[in-house]
Amino acid sequence: MGILKSSLLKLTIGLCLVFNFFACESEKTLEQEALSKIETLEELMEKAKANSIDVAREETTVWFAKEFLKFANWDENNKEAVERLFGYERYYADDKAKLAEELPDFEREKVIQILDKSIADLNKELKGDMKRRPVHKVDWHNAKAGENMFVSNGKPSFPYDYFSKTVGQPLTNTDVYNDHLGALYHGGENLYPVDHDRAINSFLLKEDGTFDEELMKELTGIPDTNIGFLIYWSMGIPEWIEKREPEIRKGRSLFTGFDIDNPLARDTWGKIIRRTGELTKGKKVTELGYIFANEPHWYSEKGHWTYQYKEMNGISTYTLNNFRDWLKTKYNNNIKALNENWETRFKNFDAVDIEIPIAKTLQGKPIWFDWNRYNMHRSTSWFKFMQDELHAVNPDADTHIKLFPCTFYEDSRSHGMDFEALTELTTMIGHDAKALGGPSIRSHINSDWHKNYAYKWDGMAILHDFLESVGPDKINVNSESHFLSSGQWRELDTRTSYVRNVYWLATLMGMDANMGWFWARDPDGSPEDRLEGELDFFDPGLGGAFAGSNNQQPHVTNEVTQVMYDLNAFSEEIIALREQPRPLRLFYSETSAINTPNYMTQTGKLYESLFFEGLSLGFVTKNIIKKQDNDLWNTVVVYQTKYVTDAEFAALQQYLNQGGKVILDSETSLSMNEYGKKRQEKLQAGNGQLIVLETENVAAIKEKALAEVADAMPEVIVESDNGQDFKTTISRVVKQKDGSYLVNLLNVGHDSAKIKLSLKSGAAIFVKDLMTQNTMESEFNLPSEEVLLLEVK
User: Fold this and answer.
1) What distance in Å separates the CA atoms of residue 101 and residue 49, rounded to the nearest whole number?
2) Percent of the chain beyond pLDDT 70?
3) Which secondary structure element, helix H or strand E, spans residue 699, and what is its range?
4) Is the bond leading into 366 cis (omega within 30 degrees of zero)?
5) Which residues are CB-contacts of 409 (< 8 A; sequence separation ≥ 6)?
6) Mean pLDDT, to the nearest integer, of 679-702?
7) β partners of residue 733
8) Average model confidence (pLDDT) for the chain?
9) What is the dotted CATH code of the domain comprising 584-712?
């Protein structure tokens, strides 16, 4: 019996050792499988090169595969740190331990996924089953801003990178700055209480009027080798200014930490802008422009979420006095007229007062309009001051502003941002458009859009169509693209189909360069400096930004570069597609936007209904009608636009007098001035055509609008059936010099769509997929989030 026990004990020990061995081997299996696939892919790449096949796409996949295997090992060896990073994001906090445990193998599995796809694609090309166009890489050293696009080696180019990028890493580190992650040099964002990270900030100027030369070296020391951008970072203000100007923070905003009406603030920033403009003049790091502000807004209505971040908790005496002067001009020094309008009894303009934040119950009243119109005027004045200072010493400097998209497409207009005026002002279009790949992770945010669409595309789309209408010949820079994650949405296993679709759509709609949010891995896999130790940021979003981001998703980060490679390979075709006319225009009135609680909601409904009809939409305003060639469009639709100034009304009448065509939803539109006073005049057809429908029904307005632009519709007819009573296929068509047609199709719906292509002439057609050079039938299925670029003959 003793011998039996001894034998059983030895067997048990042996089995345990074997089990532990295989358990250890199991842990290594995913990494070993990935390494084996890297070896396979590299062997295929050598064969491809021998056959003169471009392997730039595979080189990027291999690079990301090796990086994320390294990251997975760091995550496995530092689970406590990873758990803490998940814990900073409340959406993941409850599951932080489980997520930290699972993350390393998740990353390894996704590495295998991208390798499998690359192996399959390259095998297809080696076998002749498809032929891809070689990648046209961005020339990070010599790309130039052209007339309305960036140009690299003689072709249109779409530079890409990450806006906030491994703070603490030198700009010369090729593990961070390369073709795979992007290689733009920039003064990026730093959310420490005092920002000294290459961004141009107010700490550069000392109280004695001299400059902090050590800080200035962080700017002047940027190597003059790669193209890039610089940003004026306005969050902080030095203590010496605060001592001299006790009101300096009164009327501050979320990302502008001082009163923009304060004379000392203007004097300080004027000196900084001029000095830095001189020092960086002609440098490659400014090729993508100087960014004047990060997501500027000055929300001034009661109950807004920005109040808790000290935004517009009141206004300074400087702001109030400037407002009084503006009112004096607006009312021709007639205090009686103002008192009648406001229902007040001020003795003179010097006695005028206003409570800020302003009560939302006043919306639609003259005091509401005057304050909100002035708030826009003062912010535009601030940015004009910045640009004038820069151009005084650096007249060729390109400029833009990182406009906060929701301040355009959401209803509130208490934020002080006149998107049209600011886009007219700067030399480039600037913003940080976003999209949501799925329902919001915040329960209070409405995600009803997800019933119809795979991702939320509409905010990004309407913003682009408006900005491109205002500045059709300007370069469009998204300096912080929130397509991959944001405070509202992220998904740890994001669909690569979504990544491809949203980047393609944004570029198709005008985006010339984009810097994504965000890259926060140091080359060893650890999170960047700002995410280590105790996190104490003014912006609470940064701490939680790492969890569920592209920094944990090799398939997402790889796909960003892959889609940008494809867009750059077909850059001339993309430019041709997006430069098509915008025959149908929606009339936009800032007056109605200020006075009407749901103006943008209503505008968005009409915009959405027309978006999938195969033509690029556009907007007109008073200024667009006056400043641009009216022959650029065929028809203007006025919808749910009750309030317009006399100047806006006159512009529409002038357009009609010159032979234009206007569809008016009802006599209610245009019936009031900015103060809610009834307008006696009504639009007259003049030499043009005025169609008054007397309906608010979107379907009826859409039907009439499309009938009026029928002659401007493409020669290629795209029929799409997704089995629903709404459309989800976006199509764009352009005729080429050889008589063939470029057709771009994107499906943003949940379901596949049955597509049928035909010509208006009825002639037989031949269809080729330009991405693979394979022929196709004229009828086919377009899967959810699929992107196709076709040639039709």
Assistant:
1) 40
2) 94
3) helix 698-708
4) no
5) 458, 459, 462, 463, 600, 604
6) 97
7) 743
8) 93
9) 3.40.50.880
**What radius of gyration, in Å, describes the C-alpha atoms of the chain?**
29
- Among residues 639, 581, 642, the alpha carbon closest in space to that of 608 is found at 639
Longest Cα pair distance anywhere in the chain, in angstroms? 114
Residue type, 45: M
8 Å CB contact between 399 and 471: no
Cα(173)–Cα(99) distance, rounded to whole angstroms? 31
CB proximity list for 658: less than 8 A, separation 6 or greater: 630, 686, 687, 688
The candidate with the shortest Cα–Cα distance to 516, out of 787, 168, 184, is: 184
Q: Which residue has the tokens 């050889």?
A: 738
Place of tokens 């944004």: 506
Instruction: For 459-507, write each residue's pLDDT tens digit.
Output: 999 999 999 999 999 999 999 999 999 999 999 999 999 999 999 999 9
Please tell me the pTM assigned to this model: 0.94
Burial of 16 (0-12, 13-18, 19+ CB in 10 A): exposed
pLDDT at 20 > cutoff 60: no
Q: Which CATH number fits domain 716-792: 2.40.160.20, 3.10.290.10, 3.20.20.70, 2.60.40.1180?
A: 2.60.40.1180
Report whether 291 contacts 430 (CB < 8 A).
Answer: yes
For 173, the 3-state DSSP assignment is coil
Q: Distance (Å, rounded) from C-alpha 456 to C-alpha 122? A: 33
Phi-psi group of 694: left, alpha or beta (phi > 0 → left; psi -120 to 50 → alpha; rest → beta): left
Residue with tokens 């556009």: 618
Q: Give the separation between CA 377 and CA 392, rounded to whole angstroms.
A: 22
From the list 156, 151, 215, the residue with the least C-alpha distance to 187 is: 215
Strand partners, 228: 185
For residue 258 the two structure tokens come to 């001082």
Which residue from 433, 400, 398 is spatially nearest to 146, judged by alpha carbons? 398
Q: State the amino acid at position 64 in one-letter form.
A: F
Q: For tokens 């001051």, name the residue.
A: 385
Secondary structure of 615-673 in HEC code, one letter for each residue: CCEEEECHHHHHHCCHHHCCEEEECCCCECCHHHHHHHHHHHHCCCEEEECCCCCCCEC
Q: Are 649 and 680 in contact (CB under 8 A)?
A: no
**At 25, is the pLDDT very low, low, confident or very high (cuts 50, 70, 90)?**
very low
Cα(88)–Cα(82) distance, integer angstroms? 10
* pLDDT tens column, 283-336: 999 999 999 999 999 999 999 999 999 999 999 999 999 999 999 999 999 999
Tokens of 347: 């003795």
Q: 429-431 and 476-481 as β-strands: parallel, antiparallel, unpaired? A: parallel
Segments making up each domain of the chain, as ranges: 26-127, 151-571, 584-712, 716-792
**Which helix (H) or strand (E) is 469 found in, with range?**
helix 458-470
- Residue 19 dihedral angles phi and psi, to the nearest 5°: -60, -45
pLDDT digits (tens, 9 = 90+) for 381-407: 999 999 999 999 999 999 999 999 999
Q: Could you tell me the strand order of the sheet in which 144-145 lies?
A: 144-145, 150-152, 155-157
The conformation of residue 244, written as its DSSP 8-state character, comes to H
Which uninterrupted H or E stretch holds 152?
Answer: strand 150-152
Record the tokens describing residue 89, joined without a space. 């994001």
CATH architecture of residue range(s) 151-571: Alpha-Beta Barrel (3.20)
Residue 132's nearest CA partner among 782, 772, 783 is 772
CA distances from 425 to 380, 384, 471, 684 (A): 8, 7, 10, 33
Which of 228-232, 541-545, 717-721 has the lowest average pLDDT? 541-545
